Amino acid sequence: MTGLKKVKTAVFISGRGSNLNNLIKFSKTKKSPIIIDLVISDKKAFGLKYADQYKIKKKIISFKSIKIAEKKCLIILKKRNIELICLAGFMRILSKNFIKKFKGIIINIHPSYLPKYKGLNTSLRALKNNEKFSGCTVHYVSSKLDSGKVILQKKVRITKNETEISLDRKIIKEEHKLYPAAISKILY
Ligand code: GRF
Question: Other CB atoms closer than 10 Å to residue 19's CB: what's the count?
Fold first, then answer.
């Protein structure tokens, strides 16, 4: 990245928000190419507390009607000149139309080594299939679930006696390193 202007970023969440918290902390470092300007959630998510804590603008938008929700999102994204959207545990699939209309970049983090285990319950499914490893992936968002071009991925070894909880814990730790690294990779 040239110059000092940081990329205005919105983070979309639905839940716990540990990636949001991690990205906010990253954004405050000198080496970060982004500034987090907006948090959007489709419900009263636990993670919204990080927006409050860091005094970042937050918006809860109901996705009962996807069409209306996406319209509202696009208006606020445009108003605030958002250039990058980071999905972080956002449990909605954005439409082709939204992806086309938003003129910036949209990326997502997923708790598996894609293309394996798209969708939900990734660790449980990997364990049930006796996989030797799982992992996490940051990828561009396309209109097909968890299928856009991969930016960065990290493998996590599945050890003997691994449980869903222990595996999830190992993966989320790697996610917190991977997401900032992927953002730096595409913006610098
Ligand atoms: C993460 O595992 C992420 O990969 C997936 O949803 C989870 C969100 O966790 N998309 P958190 O809300 O960031 O703690």
Answer: 25
